[in-house]
Amino acid sequence: MGVLNRAAIKREAKDFIGNDKRWLKMFFSVALYYILTNIDSIRINIQKLPRIFHGGNTIKYFFDYYTNYSSDQEVEGIINVSFNIVSILLIPFMVSVAGYFLNSLRGFNPDWKSVCKEGFDNYGSYFVVCIVTGISIFLWSLLFFVPGIIKALEYSQVPYLLHDNKNLKASQAKQISTIMTRDYKTDLLILYLSFIGWHIISALTFGLGYIYVIPYINTVKAMYYENLKSNAIDRGIVAPEAFMTNPPIYDDFSSYNQYNGQEQTPAQPYTTNNIYSSQIAQPETPKTEDIEERMFEIPEADDVFKTSQTDSSDNDSFNK
Looking at residue 206, what is its pLDDT? Predict the structure, then answer.
């Protein structure tokens, strides 16, 4: 069974969020973030609704709206800039939203307060790492469209990594994400493209479909991260300390949070407590220098996150 079995992971995600209609709680826990980051699009679409329902020429309306410049559009431009600034200021909460879905999978039962708390408590560090990552993707996009897509896929795990290890610097988070997604960028691209149909359905329902689609897509992405993390640890290409400020102790990492449709034990929360769980108290955080010393104390010069050699048979099992 492959590391990223898309069909099986999607099926398990639907089962997970469908349990006791968990998707409803999930949506309302992150709804404020999605509303604020997409409020400009929501406003414009609401303005277009009268044209649709009153039989107007919708195509002509769209053409006139985007080609004819007027004083009203000067005001629109100011409003757009304001909303873009709001979206930039909300970037750290992208990490806390990713953390919310990870904590849900891990059995912490988080609530909407955890999204706000994590974002505010780590605002500065999250903002810097995400901005640097975004700039890197933008600069690669200037070379050509394809390099930008490749880098976006390579760095796609950065928000989850930041949630797990808040001491990571931008260069470290990008490097770990690149190692994790090596050989799996095509799988990630296919996954993202497979969500297009869900977005179309949500648009046809005037956004109401996102009440289910947002929890579903985010749960699938979180499951992908858990699989990529377990795979990286099992293969010895990323040290466990790179993922967690308080690394949990497992006898067998291969049995931890594998979402491949295989028979598995229920997901268990980390053995150390999580500060952002609504039920768990804050643990003592180890010193940053101690973590970095363990994370980068590597015998192999070509891969700073490789902790040990694994035999070829173990590596081959992940490529079948």
Answer: 83
DSSP code of 3?
S
Residue 294 or residue 159, greater confidence:
159
CA atoms of 4 and 287, how far apart (whole Å): 34
Question: Rounded CA gap, 146 and 144, in Å?
Answer: 6
Question: 3-state SS of 153-199?
Answer: HHCCCHHHHHHHCCCCCHHHHHHHHHHHHCCCHHHHHHHHHHCHHHH
Residue 84, C-beta contacts closer than 8 angstroms, at least 6 positions apart: 40
Residue 75's SS3 state is helix
Neighbours of 292 (CB within 10 A): 16
Identify which of 231, 93, 268 has the alpha carbon closest to the alpha carbon of residue 163. 93
Phi and psi (nearest 5°) for 276?
-95, 5
Q: Provide the token pair at 195.
A: 């969500």
Euclidean distance between CA atoms 264 and 148, whole angstroms: 37
In sequence order, which residues have a C-beta less than 8 Å from that of residue 16 and are 6 or more positions away? 22, 105, 219
Q: Quote the pLDDT of residue 98.
A: 97
Does the model's pTM come out above 0.90?
Answer: no
Which of 302, 185, 291 has its CA nearest to residue 239? 291
| 151 and 136 Cβ atoms separated by less than 8 Å | yes
259 near 6, Cβ under 8 Å?
no
How many angstroms separate the CA atoms of 87 and 277, rounded?
25
Average pLDDT of the chain to the nearest whole number: 77
Does position 320 have pLDDT exceeding 50, yes or no?
no
- Round to whole Å and give the CA distance between 253 and 308: 15
Q: Angle 259-260-262 (CA atoms, 0-180°, nearest 5)?
A: 100
Q: Tens digits of per-residue pLDDT, 127-164?
A: 999 999 999 999 999 988 899 999 999 999 999 999 99
Please write the tens of the pLDDT for every residue from 233-247: 999 999 999 998 544
Q: What is residue 87's predicted lDDT score, i.e. its pLDDT?
A: 87
